[in-house]
Amino acid sequence: METHRCNLTRLQRSDYQDVKSLYVNEQVRTYLGGAIPEEHILNKFSDTLQRSETDSNYWAIRLKHNNVFIGLVSLEQHVDGQDTEISYELLPHSWGQGYAKEAVDQVLAYAFNKLNLSKVIAETQTANHSSCKLLERVGMKLDRKIMRYGAEQAIYGIDKV
Known about the structure:
single chain; alpha+beta; Aminopeptidase; 4-stranded antiparallel beta sheet; 4 helices; globular
């Protein structure tokens, strides 16, 4: 898949070092439980890759003009076991430039048009104001707030139009 400025490619084993850069980045992981310890990174990546090959969809986000990796976007079953959740993690150097919105818009279109989903949700900490604003910019509406993982979470949703 592609956006105006990015290519979204299915996650592959060759993406390991790039994805590792997300996992170890304190800024990226601020609202995701912190940086992942080195000894757990390979297992987490392998698990993610395996899920991507079976029941989830993970895409590496790369800039079109130079193929530089800037993040991940995914669709997978939400922890509630009922809904499909969109998630994203981008490296700090790409924040605030609209790349996440492009990727999320494209994956939502894929979810509704190719997977024929009727609804997609997203969960983020309410303290992550940038993520909340992004979800609202792509048309998601705040559904509810809950306590999970020791912090207040916002659950956003969007229905197929």
